[in-house]
Amino acid sequence: MANLSEISRWEAGIYQWETSDPVQGGPNGIDNRPTRELANRTRWLYDELGRVKARMDDPNFYKSITVSDSKALFDAGNYLHIGADATGGYIRNKKTNKGIRLQNDGTLQYDGSDIITARKVSHNPDDYTVATVPSSFALNKAFDNSIKRGGAIGLGGTAHQIAIGWDTPGLVAKVDTQTFNVGVPTGAIAYFAHTTIPFGWLKANGAAVSRTVYANLFALIGTTYGAGDGRTTFNLPDLRGEFIRSWDDGRTVDNGRVIGSWQADEFRSHSHGIGVKSMSDTDRGSNTSTVSIDTVGQTDPAGGIETRPRNIALLACIKA
């Protein structure tokens, strides 16, 4: 007794015994034909499964799947590389090494940058939360309301493109192609017709303020107007009740002055002449005499307690 001989082959069909078939055993006997064909199919399936198992046992099997229209394109590097790593799945163009990744956190990336996030889409241009992504409607609305000025929102004239940002000179704006410094620089002096200190300003009242809180102002004026406590503070200029005179800066009209220096009140030296009239004494008949006055006189006082022009009192402030 022996086992059937098996061939790794897919049989197109399995023979069915007929009533007219003789009883015939042996390797080629009719009685063993259906069994032999089933055995061949089984062997073929076993071998195919073995090849699949061998492929799956290959460490490279789990790394990726490659897709290309032809072997020639594949050999030229024109194929997609499909795989997954610890952070998510990816489809990469092998030719450019750029691809799309679906991260484990739900974000979709192209070439390392998010293109779709887990945030919800918002149509509100004022929604700045990190949980939302503005829609094209929201972006267009924000563009019309804050960047595109003029006829776009009924201000008259034509629409202009405006960009606003912070630069070394301070707050700057660019209208079409022209740039403006719209911020007041640190250290500027301004006068206000009210007693409320505007945001970003300090009263120019000589107060001692922090060198760290107002570091930009301290870097500009230092201790010119006073050293404060000599360590943590410095003094602001005190403009209360003062008139401002422009710094001479080498013109020689107001010699010897340095920026921030103070002058007491003064008026230019001058004199006033007093006329004395000689008189003849005619009361003694033919005898006449001349009277002279040697004592110098003075004019009567006039004016107030100081010399000043017409003026108005305003609140002096310095930009912090």
What brief labels describe this structure?
4 domains, 4-stranded antiparallel sheet, 4 helices, rod-shaped
Could you give a short account of the major beta sheet? 6 strands, antiparallel
Oligomer: single chain
CATH architecture of the largest domain: Alpha-Beta Complex
Q: How many helical stretches?
A: 4
Q: What is the helical fraction, as a range of percent?
A: 10-25%
Mean pLDDT: 82
**What count of structural domains?**
4
Form type? rod-shaped
List unreliable stretches of 5+ residues. none
Write down the CATH class of the largest domain: Alpha Beta
Spatially, the strands of the biggest sheet line up as 1-2-3-4-5-6
Query: Whole-Å distance between the termini?
Result: 109 Å
Order of helices and strands: HEHEEEEEEEHEEEEEEEHEEEE
| CATH fold name of the largest domain | heat- and protease-stable fragment of the bacteriophage t4 short fibre, domain 3
Cα Rg: 51 Å
Q: Strand tally, please?
A: 19
Structural class, judged by helices and strands? alpha+beta
Fraction of residues in β-strands: 25-35%
Quick synopsis:
The chain has 320 residues and is an alpha+beta fold.
What does this structure look like?
There is one protein chain. This protein is an alpha+beta fold. It has 4 domains: 1-61; 63-118, no CATH class; 134-182, no CATH class; 184-245 and 312-319, heat- and protease-stable fragment of the bacteriophage t4 short fibre, domain 3, CATH 3.90.1340. Helices cover 15% and strands 26% of the residues. It has 4 helices and 19 strands. It has helices at 33-57, 71-75, 136-147, 215-221; strands at 65-67, 80-85, 88-93, 98-103, 108-110, 113-116, 120-122, 132-134, 148-149, 160-167, 170-175, 178-181, 189-192, 201-203, 208-210, 233-235, 279-284, 287-291, 315-319. It has a 6-stranded antiparallel β-sheet with strand order 1-2-3-4-5-6, with no helix packed on it. A hairpin with a 2-residue loop joins strand 5 (108-110) and strand 6 (113-116). It is rod-shaped, with a radius of gyration of 51 Å. The model has no long low-confidence stretch (mean pLDDT 82).
